[in-house]
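quick one
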Amino acid sequence: MTTLAERLSAIDDGIADAARRAGRAREEITLIAVTKFHPASLVQDLYDLGVRHVGENRQQELSAKSAALSALPDLRWHFIGQAQTKKASAIRRSAEVVHSVDRARLADALDRVAVDDTLLDVLLQVNLTEDPERGGVPPAELERLAEHVLSLPTLRLRGVMAVAPLDEDPAQAFARVYEYAVRLRALAPDATWISAGMTADYAEAVAAGATHLRIGSAITGPRPAQG
Ligand SMILES: *Cc1c(COP(=O)(O)O)cnc(C)c1O
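structure w/ pyridoxal-5'-phosphate:
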């Protein structure tokens, strides 16, 4: 058995290695620890080990854990799951970044529920498969969605997010994501983030320019049974 500290440190080393091999600076890359299905106490343990970015894919869990840990002001919550429009307000109250904006209606809902002049950072999730159930905007519609998000005053467009398909070489999939990021930057020069790479494929993501890695099980250990 390994400890949480050992697993986190192994991932930190793995990211540093991948960055070195890609000729990139480690500081360009943000590790988001994905803590879904694990209790708030595990997030606290990660915080004590220096983690400041955590990711959740379900609104109820995001809301509950961020409320439980609200005393940690420099802990940043990233929402990375498929979002229902009616959950926009709850998501916006807890997350500083939403990675999974994939349609104009969701962007509108997130914009409408702003409560003060704090901007919400958003990424456009791009669907790398032909399956609409996987979430994400089809690549052909990326620019149209970007223009829409840019028109909304309380959202700050930061970049693109993607999940590699199970049936494609991740290096190839992330090369496509990089092209989408370049296309987005042509419209929004400040949208420089690329959220890509999970436990199984983060090294390939770093090689393809990812700036934000979403890593769960390699850090937390296996997820408890889904409730
Ligand atoms: C669960 C999840 C991750 C992390 O997956 P691991 O394979 O456990 O690293 C990353 N991104 C999204 C969107 C997820 O839902």
